Amino acid sequence: MKIKIKKQPICIYFLGIFFISTPVFSQTPLSAKDEIAIRHVLATQETCWNTGDLECFMEGYWKSDSLAFIGKSGVTKGWKATLANYKRGYPDKAAMGKLTFTIIRMEKLSSKSAFVLGKFHLDREKMDNLEGYFSLTWRKVKGTWVIVVDHTSG
């Protein structure tokens, strides 16, 4: 006995994949409490940067060897290595300038992770100004939101 399998038009398969995957690509807003907490960390980072305090600025990052910073020079792994790179790239307050963040999008990835897309601008008096974009992956660690992956271009 031969079993016949009815062939379905390929568009039905693509429609199924579209409807299954659509929620994955939908933006899910953060709770007001989590958004306020993340914005507070970013505002604190701006303040720390603008006073020339890189150690304070780095408090917004995950203090782990698994922290990842991706920039024009590649991937830096770890909190200490990221701080060392910042110190090399911005040796004094004049090089640091005045930092301003602009948040473009924030979304919830899970109950303990979030994504932030934004723009940064460094206004410097004696050097060229810098600006670019960043994408940050955040994780709630022991009740506190910290950056676990920073991809910055500029």
| Overall mean confidence score, pLDDT | 88
Distance between the termini: 67 Å
Helix and strand content put the structural class at alpha+beta
Work out the strand percent. 35-45%
Query: With helices defined by DSSP (H or I, 4 residues minimum), what is the helix count?
Result: 5
* Order of neighbouring strands in the sheet with most strands: 2-1-6-5-4-3
The CATH level-2 architecture is identified as: Roll
What's the CATH C level?
Alpha Beta
Low-confidence stretches: 10-25
* Count of structural domains: 1
For this structure, the CATH topology is Nuclear Transport Factor 2, Chain: A
Give the beta-strand count: 6
Q: Summarize the amount of helix as a percent range.
A: 25-40%
Rounded to an integer in angstroms, the radius of gyration calculated over CA atoms is 21 Å
